[in-house]
Amino acid sequence: MRSDRSAAAPLGLKIAAAAGLLFLHVPILLIFLYAFTTEEKSYQFPPPGYTLQWLAVAWNRPDVWQALGLSVRVASIATAVALVLGTLCAAAVSQTKFFGRETISLLVILPIALPGIITGIALRSAFSFAEIPFSFWTIVLGHATFCVVVVYNNAVARFRRVSGSLIEASMDLGADGFQTFRYVILPNIGTALLAGGMLAFALSFDEVIVTTFTAGQQQTLPIWMLEELVRPRQRPVTNVVAMLVVLVTLLPILAAYYLTRDGDQVAGAGK
Amino acid sequence: MSAITQTSIMEGRSGTFGRLSDFFWRNPKILLFLMLAPPLLWLGIIYLGSLFALLLQSFFSIDEFSGLINYEFTLATYRQLLIPSNFDIILRTVVMAALVTLAAAVIAFPIAYYAARYAKGKWKALFYLGVMLPLWSSYLVKVYAWKLILAKEGILTWVFARLHLTWLLDAWLSLPIVGGNSLSISYTGTFIVFVYVWLPFMILPVQAALERVPGNLIEASADLGGHPAQTFRHVLFPLALPGIIAGSIFTFSLTLGDYIIPQIIGSSRLFIGQAVYAQQGTAGNIPLAAAFTVVPIVIMGFYLWMAKKQGAFDAL
Amino acid sequence: MTTAVLFDKVSRHFGPVRAVDGVDLAVVEGEFFAMLGPSGSGKTTCLRLMAGFEQPTGGHIEIFGETAEGVPPYRRNVNTVFQDYALFPHLSILENVAYGLMVKGVGREERLKAAENALAMVKLPGYGTRRPGQLSGGQRQRVALARALVNRPRVLLLDEPLGALDLKLREQMQEELKTLQKSLGITFVFVTHDQGEALSMADRIAVFNDGRIQQLGTPEEVYKRPQTRFVADFVGSSNVLAPAFVESLGYPARYASLRPEALSLGDGTGSVTGDRKRVTGTVVATGFLGAANRVTVEAGCGTRIAAMVPASQALPEQGSGVTLSFAARDLHLMDEAA
Prior knowledge:
The structure holds three protein chains of three kinds. By secondary structure, chain A is mainly alpha-helical.
C-alpha cells in the first residue's frame, strides 16, 4: 500500500517547493515584460510605460534577421547530422552486445559532460592547426558534435522499449532487415527521434560557448545577443530578441515532451 | 486464406535490398561496423582529435619575445599556472563552484522531494515541465534576465525599497569580497546567476533518486518516533545523496567551465573560463589557455571517480 | 510419413554454456509435438533454432527435407507464436494479422480479407480496428495465433503461449489449440514447462534437461514408462525408488518409478493377492487436494512414498502404521542402474 501518497505535504515543504519553482520561472517571465517597456537607456523597474514599437524596430533590423537566418540554418544541418549519427550509434549499442559499448556511451556523452569552453577551444585550435578557415561548416561541425548525445539519449531509451521480440516477430513473419526497419523499427522509434531532433535543434539554436570559438566573424543569434550583453547598444531590440529566443526554444521543448511523455523521459542531461 | 506456399524454404526478396538483407543477416558484425563507423569516426576524429591536440599544446610554451609558439616539450606552461595571479583564478573558480553546488542542492531538495513524493498525475507533469522548461530555455536569455533583475535600477532594488529594506541591501553591498557597487557587478550576483542557471541540473537527478525511496520507509522512521529532522538526517538524506552527487557533477563542471556569466554579471576578477578565453584570444597564448583547460578536466576526472565510488551514476 | 523438422546431432553452445547439446529429433508432418522441460533445459533454444533466430554450432537441421541452417527466419515458411505475443503496438489488430502477407507483397484487399478470416477463425471477428493495448491477455494470444496462421506456415512454433493466462482460460485455449491444429493439419511444435499441458495436448513429447533430450515418446509412454529419474520426477512427480529398495521388493537392483495414483492405502491388516506388492510404513504427512488426497509414507531406509487416495477414503492419522499396495506391473524399472 502506498497510502503515503495521499498524505498532505507539510506547509514548509510546500512553500519551499513553490518558492523554488517561482525562482526558476520569474526571471524568464520578466523578459516578456521588458520587451514592451518604453525605457530605452536603462533596466528601470517598474517600466515607466508600455509600447509595441520595439517589435517593429526589431523587425526592421537586418542584422537580427541575418543572425536568425544563420542560427536556423546551422541548427537544421547540425540536427540532421546529429539525427543520423545518434540513431546509428543508439541502434548499434542497443541491438547488439559487443565489447566496448560503455566506452561508446561515454564518448557520446563527453562533449556535453566536459565544459563547453573545452570543446570550443579544442575545436578552434584544431581548426587553426589544420588551417581550416572559419565558415558556416565549422559552426555546424561543433554543434553536431554535442547534439549527437541528445538524439542518442532519446533513441537509446526508446530502443530499450522496442523489445527484441518485435524485431524477431517481424522477421518471423517474412520481413527482411530493411522491411523490418521500415515497418517496425522506424514507426516505433519515430517519435523519440522527432523529440531528440527538436531538442537538438533547441540546443544548437541557443548555443553560444562553443560557437564563439568556431564562428569567426559570423554572427548567430546567441552571438549577436552576447555582443549586446557585453556592449549594450540598443537594449529594447535585445529585449525583443530575447523574447523571440524564449519562444523559439519553448515550442520544440514542449513538443518533445508531448512526444515522449508516456514512458521514457526527455533526456535529462542538457547542455 | 491465401498465399499458400508449399515450399518450406522460400526465395528471398530479389533485388539489391533482398541480397543486402541476407548479407547483413549472415554477417551481423559488418552491419554493426557500418552502423558504428560514422558516429565513431565523427566523434573520434573531430572531437577526441581536437581534445588531444589541445592537450598536446599545453606541453608547449610561448616565446615571450616573439609571441610565437615554441614547439618543444616543456612543463613550463603548467608552472605558470602556479604563479599567484593564475592560482588565484583557479582557487576562486573552485570555491565558487563548491558554493554554487551547495546552494543548488539546498534549493533543489524541497522541489525534488515534493515532486517525487507528493505530486501526482497532472501536478507531476507540471512539476516536470516546470523544471525542464527553464533547463532548456536559452542560457543567454536567462543570464540577460538576471542582468535586468540585478541592475542598480532593476527589480531587486525596487523590491528592497518597497519593503523598506534598502539599508539591508546597502549593508550587504558594503561588505568586502561579496559586495560591490551593485549586485550586477559583485560576486553575489555571479553566485546567484550560477545557482539559477544550473539549478535544474540538480533537481532532476535528486528527484530521480528520491523517486526510488519507498514512501513507507519514511513512515517507518516516523512510526519509530523519528523526529522529522532525524528522518531527514538518517533516512532521506543518505538515500538522496547519490542524486545530489550526480547533480553536483553538472553544477560543478558547468561552473568550472563557464566564462560568460562572470563576464556579464560580476566583478572584473577572472574565472578559469575567462582566463582561457583571454589567453587564447587577445593574449594569443594557446599553450597557457590549454593548460588552464586541463584544470577543470583533472578536477572533473577526480570528481567523477569519487562519484562513481559513491554509486552516483545510477541516479543519472 | 513426412518428416517436418529434423534435428541431426544439433548443438548450440553460447561460449562455455551448452544450451543445446547433440539433440536428435524428427517431428512428423501434421503432429502436435511438445518440447517439455524446466527453464534453461534447452527447449526454447531448440524452438529458436527451428525459427532461425539461432544458428546451430554443430549438427544439421532440415525443414521438410530442405537444409535450414544459414537460412534467415524471414525465408523460412515457419511461423512463431511468441511467449509475450510480440504484437506490433503501432499497428491495428487487422494490420498486425495482415503483416506477414503485406511484406510478401500480397495486395491490400486480399490480405485484409485473409486477415479478417483469420481473426474469425480464432473467434475474434470484428476486433480488427482495435490496438493491441486495448485487448486482454487471452485476446492478444489469439491475435498472435491468427497472425502466424494467416501465412499458412508449414510448421507453427509456439513458445509457452499459454504461460501468461489464468488457469481457466488456459484450459479453454488448450482445447481450442488442439481442435485448431487437427482441423488445419499444420504441424505444431509447442514449448512448455507445464507437464499437464504437454500430456493433454501433444501427440508426442520430448522431455528436455540440460540441453539434451531425456526421453521422446507419446504422453502415455513418457508418463507411465519414464526412462530416467529426471523424467519420472518432472513428468507427474512419480515416486523414484532407489535400487536397494527396489531389490527388497523382489525386482532387479535398478531405479524404478511408481505413480502415486497406482498405490492404494490399507490399514496394515488386510492381505493382498498374488500379483500385488505391498509396502508397510508410517504416515509422515497428509495433504488435502480435493478430488484425491495425498498421503506420504515413510517406508524405511529413508524411502518416502507418496500415494493418492480417493477423497471417499478417510485420511489416516499422522504417525499411524499403514500398508501401501500396488499391482506388480505398475512399478516401472528405469534404464538407469545404480
